[in-house]
UniProtKB/TrEMBL annotation:
Keywords: Ribonucleoprotein, Ribosomal protein. Belongs to the eukaryotic ribosomal protein eL36 family. The keyword Amino-acid biosynthesis does not apply. It comes from Prymnesium parvum. GO terms for molecular function: structural constituent of ribosome. PANTHER family: 60S RIBOSOMAL PROTEIN L36. This is 60S ribosomal protein L36. One of its GO terms (cellular component) is ribonucleoprotein complex. GO terms for biological process: translation.
Amino acid sequence: MSAPTRFAGTTGHPVGETKTGLAAGMDKGMQLTKRALPVKHSYRKGPMLLNCCPALKLLGQKLNKRVQFVREVIRELLATRDQVVGFAPYEKRTMELLKVGREKRALKLLKVKLGTHKRAKAKREECAEELRKQRMK
């Protein structure tokens, strides 16, 4: 029927490597030739922190050392005790929500702004880490 490797490393319903061309069955569907698509620029652009999302490392994304250094310097120089500067407005609002203990509301805001749950969780952790750093000073 299909390749013996179809159960290796999977959980849940097994999926074959190719479609059968039939309208029914586990591997139903028309047989197609996969096209090699060019890598999107959005996949290559350096994320804020690679540590917050290990999946980005699997995609081969790298944050330029210079870009990382510049971002860190700007945030260190501009962040003071009274105000949070060097962050986007939605990040400032997220930090305010985290300060008053509204983690779930912060996650909802970030999900709307960033588009996916995974990105929102990573950004929330990043903002929480920034707040921890500010409290340590």
